[in-house]
Fold each of these.
Amino acid sequence: MAPSGADASATLAASLKANRDRYLAVIEGSVPTAANGAMCTVAGRPVADVIREVTAGAAGTIAVGSCAFDGGLSAASGGATGASGVAPFVSGTLVALPGCPINAFNLAATLVHYLTFNELPPTDAGGRPLFAYGALVHNECERRAHFEFGEFVQAWGDEGAQKGWCLYKMGCKGPETYANCASAGFDGGLSWPVKAGVGCIGCTMPAFWDAMSPFTRRLPSPLPFLPNVTADDIGQAAVIGIAGVAGLHAVGSYVRANRQGAAARRAKAAAKLVPSGAAIEGAAVAVAVAAEPMPAAEPMPAAEPAAADEAPTTILVDAVPGADLDADAGAGESD
Ligand code: SF4
């Protein structure tokens, strides 16, 4: 707006009245709440009051950047301003575009979505549009193949760094961060942090200054009395411990199963050597039957003498063609 001072306030009030429910409020920066909001005022009013007034008549509000999202750096540990994101002061629809810095591509895309569909884009539970914050940086990163192959940068400037290997071991927070930096890029898609050689710092995530730092190491220690032990160290120790217990349990189970199997095999072999009750009973019956005397054989009837006129007949077979069988034939003929 061209005016300044009291004229600017008058122009703002007139515009809000004339365009009620027909404008989008785009807000950047955190909202200091300490000292009754005295740390950030507009025309003598706490900025929180101005935000309430401006967003009350808006068709929707877009919170731009991590500070407007959840207070950003001003709300990090040690902050003295009681900084907050804009959400507590917005009564209507709110879309948040966190990032430090905000990706201008996502702001433009959100505005175009509203102009096209007359509504703001669908969001996740944190108010972040799904088209921009619906996927992990890690899943769209051009270095992901190196992660899968275990090719990691181990030190800044080493051979892996020169070859564009994965920055996970240098603290990259891509696996924990939802944003489209890898696919959209910055500066018209020219580059983004990981492409430029530094890890993702998770700047689109809630409270990332505290939750994601130190940015060049894996996750910080959750144990205040052991600040040099990172969450990764604890996680690895837990994984190793669980794996060790599981391994011991598996070995114990294997040994027990083998013992039981050996005992079962021994019992089976013993059962083969000692007949079962049924077998013993059957054998006793067989012995008893064998012990009973055999009944006396019936005498065979004596053969009756053949009648004289029933003398056996000799059958002559002509085994040798031309042989004289008359003598034999005659011997067979009785008188
Ligand atoms: S550089 Fe980061 S985001 Fe890319 S694959 Fe490695 S850990 Fe994931």
Note: Residues 137-211 form a domain with the Cytochrome-c3 Hydrogenase; Chain A, domain 2 fold (CATH 4.10.480.10).
Amino acid sequence: MAAKVSSSLSSSLSKPTPFPLTPSQTPLSFSPKTLPKPFSSSSPTKTASLSYTHKTPFIASAKTPISDFFPENKQYPDGDFDGYDDYFRDDDEKPREECGVVGIYGDPEASRLCYLALHALQHRGQEGAGIVAVKNDVLQSITGVGLVSEVFNQSKLDQLPGDLAIGHVRYSTAGSSMLKNVQPFVAGYRFGSVGVAHNGNLVNYRALRAKLEDNGSIFNTSSDTEVVLHLIAISKHRPFLLRIVDACEQLEGAYSMVFVTNDKLVAVRDPHGFRPLVMGRRSNGAVVFASETCALDLIEATYEREVFPGEVLVVDKDGIQSLCLMSHPQPKQCIFEHIYFALPNSVVFGRSVYESRRAFGEILATEAPVDCDVVIAVPDSGVVAALGYAAKAGVAFQQGLIRSHYVGRTFIEPSQKIRDFGVKLKLSPVRAVLEGKRVVVVDDSIVRGTTSSKIVRLIKEAGAKEVHMRIASPPIIGSCYYGVDTPSSEELISNRMSVEEIREFIGSDSLAFLPFDSLKKLLGTESPNFCYACFSGKYPVEPREIKVKRVGDFVDDGLNGSLESIDGGWVQANTNQKKEKDKEYEESVVKI
Ligand code: SF4
């Protein structure tokens, strides 16, 4: 046990007992030190049957340099980027997940595996990507603006050797601060260097930052994640693990984070477990952390379990240490992961996302039935719920709307004339499916209502006789403070209008939402372990500060956004710091 542990830390370190892991979940090549499962209803055994083997070598497939996507000499000042964002967001007004993270320990192709895993997590953020890899005690970082395939290519991955790496994809608003806020962040402190990738949002960010600035800290970015690095750097605790714990104990809100040092990978999930984080293992014993299991699938890692709310997992040459270092309030996992954010092939919070969405559709068919000839989906996020609705209603599911996957930033300059085409650029109606039909169209959510009205008009213009909108979530009435970019409450149509008023606004013949009570009933005994704040307005962690938009609120942070800087950062640790840091750690490893 660490000799120099404060009372708050030591109390939480005192009595660990094993998680109730099944044999198949028990790590083979490491010595797990485990602790009590913080809550009982989300059993990891449900999905422990997933199994894969490592069969093929990994070949990085990125071939396209980022410069190909940005015309030479073209500048994208804030306003231009914002124009792109506004343009596409107008027609795709869903809440935005604000990040995906991955961490890999013990594989000689760690950065390439990170690259592939980030591909699998691309839906969680498309604005920037980065990887930090460790080789010979040096942390090397490459970050950039754009999709994973735009940021990385073969030669960049060649610059990230080592068997330890973390990666990050981010969604953010646009502007000059884009590059600086792309993670992972790397910082040097007295005992070495540390990299961090964060998914979530800290509700006490401003207060923490103000306090740190009062004490002389200088911030380089406008991201709340940088606060974590400062807190680690100034912590008096040793070893490094306890610095992380000390820092996390000061954070409020949502954080699923992976850290990397010269020889350790650390995964942390906030005590409420707002955002997901899972652990898996490759057949060669490499340990993988990722936001979703779809990333594990892609890199042929076997899902083992979630990182539990309030848990800190440390992976190094001695194995895995699992510590429950923070108090355990009732978990509040984000239900929107199951409604919209996560991929349907992922298992999130111990539940299949596909099965959840299908059940949402079935509930809608049972509780809000309507005579119809065909069931269609707003692709892609409404598809699984529409399948559930169609099966339950006994009506054919057909592809009445086709999504274009090829509309992106590089498509065309957004002029007002083009903007007016709106949703048609992304969704095309299939007249053969819709003409003369009574159509049920299933979508995952309604935010401002503008997209829904355009979709209804599109379907009617294609000849539909009736359009019945079914929404596979309850009405959204509150903004999210835990890592999801939603509009302010005033902009949310369900906060301003009744269901009938919304129906009138969007022009459908009928409209029904997934009843809140039915959603909770579906989740059964796990229901209290989920956050529903955007449907109920009841926030499990009170948002004491005004909403922090991770990037967009901080317009002028001094970076001019030139194309030259898009290539990202390169940070090297001071290797002389390593011995001191190692010694510090070795002396006080927490034994359980
Ligand atoms: S407020 Fe909504 S989107 Fe945010 S964490 Fe809670 S359920 Fe998820």
Note: The longest helix spans residues 353-367.
